[in-house]
């Protein structure tokens, strides 16, 4: 199967690091002679990564040896092209951890000045934070969000508001995070939690089991980011094989993630791990709507990484995400802050992306977050060969929103997609596999969709009054061909009947009851397959049969079989070319 061609018919613009590195520096904090005053040779290495970051020139790289480095790496410059890059890489076979936290050995004493009712057996203790927080960044003073709440927050929901207004700082006990509570009184019901006293220099804490803090290793986040240049727009950097943990970044927007290109271009970030970011794991765009987008922009390669345990988003890109390859990554346990109604929560979320190839990734165990979200004016992007499993969301595993040009979602596996609406959602729009809202010209083809609570394929018109680029989205020219839908009680939704098409699909016979919906023209209606075909000329070449299927959420392996008729699949073999050419509305033949 061709996975290199974009919906426009053009081949994705691949590139690679072609640099023959003329100088190699070394960082090795465990070396007895390590010092930042050294020249950085293997026998006289630097102690910190930042020392190397200030020295590196185009065509040079640093090899980082095993150790735990507590710093934010600030590259001073970028490379000048594929033949003259700057690289940061872990030494082969060595584990390099870069953390934004510091060890905290508190002078703990029983909490005073506040009362818990009822008083727990293990009364909380309190202690002042280390002096490091009196310097330039105190995440326990700063709240998660401010002005962004006004536009996107659910201000009538007090529980949502409390989560959004918590502090950015995190506390880890033996590597496990404590829960942050909003008020001191909430500690009464939470062993394994902390509360931040105003103005943000003292914590009140209960360890799990009300344990003695002196018997445990306690770490507190101290830095907003872990790898991020100070200057905007650096290009041609490669970051390979590093583990980044414990960033105290705030909620987007702006997107200032644990690992950030800071509006850079042509970065390669590969085989890294990003974990325990308060908000976002990685950002590769212009970060905010008010940004001056650099030229050049985009051109990134994000591959082979694991991004996990992020409060809001795994990989974020606002403006300037062009010609980017996202391949072979794993996004898991995203949405831990439970703030999906801020509408920036997803394993991956891009805005205005163009000519991107997103293939062969795994999105799993995402709760209170979408899987993949392309929001507003995304053009010529292909989402292919990915696995989406165990996703609990208010929207969908793949959400295509207000895009006016062709995008393609093909050959993906969707399994166990559920609604995160605590009140339940009988409409089927929450917890869908693929949802396209006020979207146009989307092709959904050759996907396997199983055990989905919401719609398998949802071409909706829910934001019909939203305007972008001087117009509203029409929900026209969307197509769904040759997909398999298993255990999807809501199969296909069309916000508008005209100029949308569904055909050549295989449906599980068990689900054939009110499983298709058309919302407009009014009055809306629900149909089974027979009515859908007879009265709306939809899915004329589709079929339904007894299906059985299973997906392993850890490996992504799919096994399925059918007993019954198969559909007449539609001609989308040369997928991108025919997708661009074909118009909706098959005839009855």
Question: Would you give an account of this structure?
Answer:
With 589 residues, the chain is mainly beta. Among the domains are: 102-221, Sandwich (Immunoglobulin-like), CATH 2.60.40.1180; 376-589, no CATH class. It is built from five helices and 49 strands. The strands form six sheets. Strands 3-5-16-19-22-25-28-31-34-37-42-45-48-49 form a 14-stranded mixed sheet, with no helix packed on it. A 13-stranded parallel sheet has the order 1-2-4-15-18-21-24-27-30-33-36-41-44, sandwiched between helices. An eleven-stranded mixed sheet has the order 17-20-23-26-29-32-35-38-43-46-47. The longest helix is centred in the C-terminal third of the chain and has 8 residues, at 529-536. The radius of gyration is 25 Å and the shape is globular.
Secondary structure blueprint with pairings:
Elements: E1 23-27, H1 49-55, E2 60-64, E3 67-70, E4 86-90, E5 96-99, E6 101-103, E7 109-110, E8 125-128, H2 148-152, H3 158-164, E9 171-173, E10 176-177, E11 179-180, E12 193-197, E13 202-206, E14 218-221, E15 237-240, E16 243-247, E17 259-260, E18 268-270, E19 273-277, E20 280-283, E21 301-303, E22 306-310, E23 313-318, E24 325-327, E25 330-334, E26 346-351, E27 357-359, E28 362-367, E29 370-375, E30 382-384, E31 387-393, E32 396-401, E33 407-410, E34 413-419, E35 432-437, E36 442-445, E37 448-452, E38 455-460, E39 467-468, E40 471-472, E41 479-481, E42 484-486, E43 490-494, E44 501-503, E45 506-508, E46 516-518, E47 525-527, H4 529-536, E48 543-551, E49 558-563, H5 575-581
Parallel strand pairs: 1-2, 2-4, 3-5, 4-15, 5-16, 11-12, 15-18, 16-19, 17-20, 18-21, 19-22, 20-23, 21-24, 22-25, 23-26, 24-27, 25-28, 26-29, 27-30, 28-31, 29-32, 30-33, 31-34, 32-35, 33-36, 34-37, 35-38, 36-41, 37-42, 38-43, 41-44, 42-45, 43-46, 45-48
Antiparallel strand pairs: 6-14, 7-8, 8-13, 9-10, 9-14, 12-13, 39-40, 46-47, 48-49
